[in-house]
Amino acid sequence: MYLGLDLGTSGVKAMLIDGDQTIVGSANGSLDVSRPHSGWSEQEPAHWMRATQEAVAGLKAKHPKELAAVRGIGLSGQMHGATLIDAADKVLRPCILWNDTRSHVEAGALDADPRFRALTGNIVFPGFTAPKLAWIRKHEPDIFAKIAKVLLPKDYLRLWLTGEYISEMSDSAGTSWLDTGKRAWSADLLAATHLSEEQMPTLVEGTQQAGMLRSELAAQWGISGNVVVAGGAGDNAASACGMGTVSDGAAFVSLGTSGVLFAANGSYLPKPESAVHAFCHALPNTWHQMGVILSATDALNWHSGVTGKSAADLTGELGETPKAPTGVTFLPYLSGERTPHNDAVIRGAFIGLEHESSRAVLTQAVLEGVAFAIRDNLEALRSAGTGISRVTAIGGGSRSRYWLASIATALGVPVDLPADGDFGAAFGAARLGLIAATGADPIAVCTPPVTSGTIEPVSALSGAYEEAYKRYRALYPAIKSLAH
Q1: Distance (Å, rounded) from C-alpha 304 to C-alpha 436?
Q2: Residues known to be catalytic
């Protein structure tokens, strides 16, 4: 058996698979986010361990014999988080999360140093790890002085699991300290934030062994024998391993809290000015590009909170087939935006409201706004040299056929639906655990799921969607001056 642990923003998911990659069971532990100030987003690392214990206890209650047979564990995690520990492994402050934008001034200053884009292949985004450390040095110098190690969230979990300071390429590519082409820490970039390689974890590939499960935890979980912990992956690369998006040109769209358009690349293709992320993949000698929007299902959940109707009820009011855009446009910039604008300060808006604008019209605009934001990502990836002819949909938002048809129409490409099953980050992490424990061929393990159906673009609406997308594109520059 092989265990995947996915440390997300809202919870930890534990998934068991067998040697044939059949899912045996899964369980969850819950997490909350603390927002002490506008633009801040934090979690206590101790809560990650509690949630992991909850998730594994849930598996043990239902599948004790299978859990006892675990031989490999893979880790997946929310990216970019700054977990700071001292020389005694004590956590120095709450972890600053990926969607925290407090360090936008520091990010701009680092991004102005041409070495960062040249070596990392990316803009220094406010959500990345390096500007967070620059913020800490400026605002919390006493804490900065005590930092012995900076760990990403899943790698702090690994420290608890194994006692080792180890990270891997896909997650580390989102720190702004990795030479992404060479797949190694850059001493120059670390020095630019007054840090050294000694304060970084050792680097391995996501498919490699990265520690062994501590005997106390193995005993507590009822596992006998040695258990290998794999390098693992950042959450999007782990999802790509779960989806089999590992070969050049394969792509998926993820409708989770954030939205991601992800394409695997056989070579390193940076184009930082497009705000496309060019990162290492979890597999050796493989990279990926992705465009990111910060609010996908988060935008619908916000609308749900305002209207007092569940997300399912709201999308249910629209049916399954997209309608022509109404003239009401929604900009989903509720917590800023990444691709293509790299704007931490911009905020969302409804434009074009009138007396006739019903709840259903606003819901339609929210879904279209997210679809057009993903279209922005597609245009950015195309400008960076990546062609996408079709995508596979994953994430909670993919349960809405209306939304998927809207996205297919906005992108102008078919959207494939995987057959029933869970092919997300926890499954990808379990696959990496299997590879690390057995030495299996990563490409042979990370195969795509069977497609259960395909949603084609609604050709009758393509013209109306193009016009609506042009309106959408024109609105960002129009409202930018109001936000800045």
Answers
A1: 42
A2: 235
